[in-house]
Structure prediction request, 403 residues.
Amino acid sequence: MEKKHKDNRKKTAIVYCENQFGLVDGKTAAALVRHSEIYTIVGVMDSSLAGKDAGGELGEEKCGIPIFANLDDALSKLSEIPDCYIYGKAPLDTFISIKERFLILEAMGKGMDIINGLHQFFSEDPEFVQMAAQSNIQIKDIRKPPQLKEMHVYTGQISKVNVPVIAVLGTDCACGKMTTAVALNKALNNLGIKSVLIATGQTSLMQGAMYGVSTDALISQFMIGEIEHSVIQAFENETPDIILVEGQSAVSHPAFMSSLGILKGSMPDGIILQHPPARTFRCDFPHLAMPTVASEIELIEAISQARVVAIALSHENLTDEETLKVIADYEKDFQLLTTDVLRHGCQKLVQALSQNFPRLNQKLNRENFIFFSERQSHRHNPLEGINEIVHAKNRNFPVPNTG
Prediction:
């Protein structure tokens, strides 16, 4: 099989996710299967699911992206060699195994660029660098931070951003924050509201976010400044109606600090809180119990001037009926519009934003409401559009006293 020259179309890519696709540590691969503005995903590598459809294994409609047993299996069945080999796992530990190393070298030998989201930088590995030169391919370390001379400290210039900034925070890692942010960003733009997404993690940068930085790879002194700079750049360059900021981890999580940096650096005007109701312990930390929605709201609003304006759910380990019950319970208990964007679209999130920010409501393209309502029954990709908008009276939704 020969590698063909490409034009300016998306690059084709195969995603490595051995034994983790559809699981927490396979979130990068899952996100790329759902959405990417940079890559056309032609396959996933996971021998435990070989022969299956990637969309089906995510509990969604089949998407036509096959899962292969290994690289040889993939290359024997694909019509041409992909442009890129993406390391699609996001484990807590950061170093690849010897077997994974050989696979990467094999991919290089086939002429594939290497896209890496780990803290282990492949571009600083002598063997990888030598092989890349021999094979005339590129290595891209997504988490590699800018040089110190290019980094930014906090300036306070965020105060000149006069459009709503909404942070999508969560109660844990890998609970759907990025998925919700990407879906909402697309929905708003499709409805005539110019929205820009600020990436704060490696996966959303791989998906094609134009602004942002992988926050957990930064020196702590620059985290807040880099987030502020990203928001300001998006505001000045794009003239948006709204800016969405992807969350990381959770404000309450004892192991990570990114959410605090995001709150301080972006100074959001509102928060959408993502939560997996069926999760009892934090992912990768089986001794740490999950916080409640009430406690996370209380903590966020204690350290930020922004209020939580809506709740988004992850339906992991929940049936459709159970998800609907949780949605009803949360809307009753918290008086906040609640949804699961993968099962029910972004209608309630758009509604919550329009209620809390009247200028957005004025800009909504009403004709598009009808258009997306009609398209909903034919929607194959959960990030393709939104449900019809259900209009409600303008109300302010107070958060119950949890103290």
The chain has two domains: 11-141, 150-378. The two ends are 64 Å apart (CA to CA). The domain at 11-141 is CATH 3.40.50.720 (Rossmann fold).
